[in-house]
Design brief:
The protein is mainly α. About 75% of the residues lie in helices and about 0% in strands. It is rod-shaped. The termini are far apart.
């Protein structure tokens, strides 16, 4: 083998090596670009997932806020119902007190009526000790000056008083009959 052939072999190997190195450099650059693109695509996918997660978090926050608002509205409605119940209870107590007052007033009026009737019986010469009229009593109104019209006026006043109250009118008093006086 002579030296020129050997030189040409070495030069050929060097050229082949240079071509391989250049080819490797060119393909490595492409691989780097593809790797960057792949990383970029992966990063974009991660960003999309993060946006989706944020959207879900906002939806859950909105649902939580809505639930808090509903709970607050329910609590307010319950407080309103409690206030109305307390007002109704106070009104019932007030009316019950008024009923007791009216009953007491009616009882006082009945007692006054009974007392007035007893006094009238004491004064009336035609009423015997049992409160019954004698047969000799005139059929007209007693001599006290009271007429049927006067009694009607008194009754109308009592009815007006009853109409101005919230209570039902009291039951009419029983006819006052005195037992024998001692």
């Amino acid at each position: 083998m002579d030296t020129t052939t050997l030189i040409w072999i070495i030069v050929g190997v060097v050229i082949v090596l240079a071509i391989v190195v250049v080819a490797l450099l060119l393909t490595a650059r492409g691989r780097r670009e593809r790797r960057r693109e792949h990383q970029h695509d992966r990063a974009e996918k991660m960003r999309e997932d993060a946006r989706e997660t944020e959207l879900q978090a906002r939806q859950h926050e909105a649902e939580a806020a809505r639930a808090r608002a509903d709970a607050a509205a329910a609590a307010a409605a319950a407080e309103d119902a409690k206030a109305r119940a307390a007002e109704a209870s106070m009104e019932a107590e007030r009316r019950a007190g008024r009923v007791d007052d009216h009953r007491a007033e009616a009882e006082d009026l009945r007692q006054q009526h009974a007392e007035a009737m007893r006094k009238a019986d004491d004064v009336d010469p035609y009423v015997d000790g049992t409160g019954a009229r004698n047969a000799a009593a005139p059929s007209a109104a007693p001599h006290t000056g009271e007429t049927a019209g006067d009694r009607d006026t008194v009754l109308e006043g009592a009815e007006r008083r009853r109409a101005n109250t919230d209570e039902r009118p009291p039951t009419p008093p029983e006819r006052h009959e005195h037992t024998e006086r001692t």
